[in-house]
Amino acid sequence: MSILFDSVRLFTAGAFFPGQKVLIEKGKVAAVGSKVLKTADVNIDGKGKFLMPALIDAHTHLGLFETGQLTPGSDMAEMFQPITPHLRPLDGIKMRDQALDDARRAGVAVCMVCPAPTNPIAGQCSILKTNGNSADVGLIVEQAGILVCFGEEPKHTYHRQKKAPSTRMGIAALIRETLMKAQDYAEAKASKKGIRDRNIQFEALIPMLEGRVPMRAHAHRLEDIMSAIRIAEEFKLKLILEHATEAHLIAPMLAQKGIPVVLGPALVPHLRFELRAKTFESAVILMNAGVEVALTCDFPGLPIESLRIVAAMACQYGLDEKRAVNAITENPAKILGVHNRCGQIKKGYDADLALFSGHPLDMRSKLEMIVVDGELFQF
């Protein structure tokens, strides 16, 4: 089915331009501009409305935490074994959960899904679209990194069980020990002698050790961020910071090292000690220093509908409109490594678009339509 958006205010080159058209064919953006002449199966009059790339949330647990359930609906974490890099979100995501419909109604077309941060090495991260009845249908990247967790959550998980690791030192030591063993395993596997018995945990870590996927470090406090940086440098790993509540305190260092940040969730109160330095100014401080920043609502930490609100709040605290929109579209696409197909409205890109009744950063504006991979949803 082909779709033509006509006379819209289109977000491109950092601003909304009126009188634009966007043609969608076969799930891709086929043409963009004010002089598109073709008609389509579905023609949408967008006069006075705002069309932008559909939103991207680069850190969620969508589909793993089943809406309205605790257990048995929660498949977010395997919390009785501290090292679980072999966990795959696709084996737990429930695409028919209400949360996926909520995501589309919030304008979100792409999300990264990861296990909960209860374990020092929690599992794999996958990137998928929010349409389809099966996670396999909308899958973009199955192995997009390993979630490695520092700070209070793994500490509390194992302190309650009276097991190690229950301190920051223990968490970092266990991560290092596991990576050392995985390195030895990889060397043995590559040798002429090879290995007899495969290890599913070490097999899952090899892509990260070889630099094919990043270590995605769950870290709020400055001390935890520094531990993640030290470990990444010791093992020559690509690093992406997740949450990074106190990252603004070392913004120049992160820029110099080229470490991107998935920032948030900013709307939660200062409930925990490691959130006490949380500020809505983090985004502008980091971006002004040259750090690549994406904003997240960390569903179910916050409702998926709050992603636009977080971007608007960042504007209230000094971030300009262009960078605020990019922080929920183009920037997360870059950080997730899917920027050659998502995050912008360009010819040949995936047809992921969101049409709003007014400016998207005005909370009075309503999402009227979203297109995900060329599939139209109207509200």
Q: What is the CATH H-level superfamily of the largest domain?
A: Metal-dependent hydrolases
Structural class comes to alpha/beta
- Please report the total strand number as a whole number: 18
Report the mean per-residue pLDDT as an integer: 95
Descriptive account of the structure:
This protein is of the alpha/beta class and 379 residues long. It has two domains: 1-53 and 344-379, Roll (Urease, subunit C, domain 1), CATH 2.30.40; 55-342, TIM Barrel. The chain has ten helices and 18 strands. Strands 1, 2, 3, 4, 5, 16, 17 and 18 form an eight-stranded mixed beta sheet that branches. Strands 8-11-12-13-14-15 form a six-stranded mixed beta sheet. Helix 3 crosses helix 4 (200-209). It is globular.
Keywords for this entry:
six-stranded mixed sheet, 10 helices, Urease, subunit C, domain 1, 379 residues, 27% helix, globular, 18 strands, TIM Barrel, eight-stranded mixed sheet, 2 domains, alpha/beta
Question: How are the SSEs placed, and which strands pair?
Answer:
Layout: E1 3-12, E2 15-25, E3 28-33, E4 42-45, E5 50-53, E6 55-60, H1 98-105, E7 108-113, E8 121-124, E9 126-129, E10 139-141, E11 146-149, H2 152-160, H3 168-190, H4 200-209, E12 215-219, H5 222-234, E13 239-243, H6 251-257, E14 261-263, H7 282-289, E15 293-295, H8 307-316, H9 321-326, H10 330-336, E16 353-356, E17 367-372, E18 375-378
Parallel strand pairs: 1-4, 1-5, 6-7, 11-12, 12-13, 13-14, 14-15
Antiparallel strand pairs: 1-2, 2-3, 5-16, 7-9, 8-11, 9-10, 16-17, 17-18
Helix pairs in contact: 3-4, 3-5, 6-7
